[in-house]
Amino acid sequence: QRLRDFFLALAVCHTVLPSCRDDDLAGEDYEGSSPDEVALVLAAKTAGVRFVDRPNHEIQVDVLGSPETFELLQTLAFSSDRKRMSVICRTATGELRLLCKGADSALFTRLRADQATARHEMSAHLKEFGDGGLRTLCVAERTLEPTAYAAWSARFERASVALSRREEQLAELAEEIETDLVLIGATGIEDELGAGVPETMVDLLAANIKIWVLTGDKSETAVCVSRACNLIHPSLDLLFVDGTAESECTRELRAALRQKDEFAHERTPYAVIASGHSLELIFADFDLRNLFWEVTRGASTVVCCRATPIQKALVVGLVRERCPSAVTLAVGDGGNDVSMIQRAHIGIGIRGKEGSQAVLASDFAISQFRFLRKLILYHGRYNYFRISLLILMSFWKNMLSVLIQLWWSTQSGFSGQTFWDAISGLGYNLLFTSLPIIVVSIQDRDVPESAVYRYPQLYRSSQSGHHFNYLTSIRWLLDCVYCSAVIFFIPRFVFAAGAVHANG
């Protein structure tokens, strides 16, 4: 019965729609806003509990060949703040049931008092799932009293049409009814890495790019995925910041800061793992924010788990605030990443199964994560080199023209006479010097394309401003002075006695 309730909850508590009403529904015939929801519905179907359709506020399922219909009364939608979703339905027997699924951090605090043993056992299973790199969810239920639900439903209907504080009222009512839950199971979904992701991470790290992982997954899952991406090596020391109270968070940050000083003395690399609870406390207190920055700024990588979209944006904002010279780039593929993408200097959206919200909010769009390697190491480096050359050459050619006029003024008594005739003056920028600059700024390559991928360290020249800095500008200025002097004074002295000899 418990297994039946578990798979029935997966088949009912979702927002998935079938794309056809065939008895032989295939996996791709379910459509949903989240691929995780589709995967859970498919898992229930594999176990014999198949979601069929949802016509007219009903949910039709097939339980081991026996059709059942649930009347859908309310849907409490998932949000990044709630980290859970619920549906309230009436069974064929007239029983009112609330089915809820969400993160363990959101559901464990809402369990019934007698669920302590189930919670302890489930925590062990969730840790095992997380260590295996699975994305976890908990599933719980509650049987509602008809009179209590009727009173709550009336208040919910009034709140849904309120003209002020509508969202706050709906959230409060959802909090009120999502209590006294009974835990019935948990799920683990494998989130496979895309092709070329580990290799891309290795090359970006070799290019001296600091990578921070901001995710909504559990810490165990985030660490496991980071290891699979070659961000966290087995020899890397991990500093955990997982405090749920301000005093505990302060103590952990101070301990991590002391360990960081020891690592710096021994030149030992380390990584920082911070939880969403800690981030909430950190960004609410200025001193904690300072401590967090001191701990993370020397880390090889930082992993922020169970982070909400607002927290992701705050982390990006912290880096921009404390390191103004750094250029931040945010990469995401879902709606939860939009705030982070918009807060960074450059936003990149990946078009995938999570929808197109991240792509619409981004500056650049790619179809796979591995294309980030070419976008940064190839296009990013070459464009920086070419734009630097374009700017320097543009100043060089214009200053060359002005300096030649200056040398001519010294010879003409500063009379105001122009050195260039009208046609030469117009043609200098339009015809004589435009084509070389255009060709160079589009086609020039200082190294072959294969060398860019073979030696990612070449990207460091763009980070250090090697091609465009004060020294480079001064060198181009001196070269311009030299070239203008050669162009003017050599013909001036060669033809000092006139262009025609005395003998004709």
Tell me what the structure shows.
- This protein is α/β, with parallel strands linked by helices.
- Helix content is 50%, strand content 18%.
- The chain is built from 20 helices and 16 strands.
- The chain has helices at residues 2-12, 35-46, 104-107, 116-131, 146-160, 166-177, 197-206, 219-228, 246-266, 276-282, 286-296, 309-322, 338-343, 357-361, 371-411, 422-432, 434-443, 449-454, 460-463, 470-494; strands at residues 17-18, 30-31, 49-53, 58-63, 66-76, 84-90, 96-102, 134-144, 182-190, 211-214, 237-241, 270-274, 301-304, 329-332, 346-350, 364-366.
- It has a seven-stranded antiparallel β-sheet, with helices on both faces. The protein has a four-stranded parallel β-sheet with strand order 10-13-12-11, with helices on both faces. Strands 14-15-16 form a three-stranded parallel β-sheet.
- A hairpin with a 5-residue loop joins strand 6 and strand 7 (96-102).
- Helix 1 (2-12) packs antiparallel against helix 2 and helix 7 (197-206) packs parallel to helix 15 (371-411).
- The radius of gyration is 32 Å and the shape is elongated.
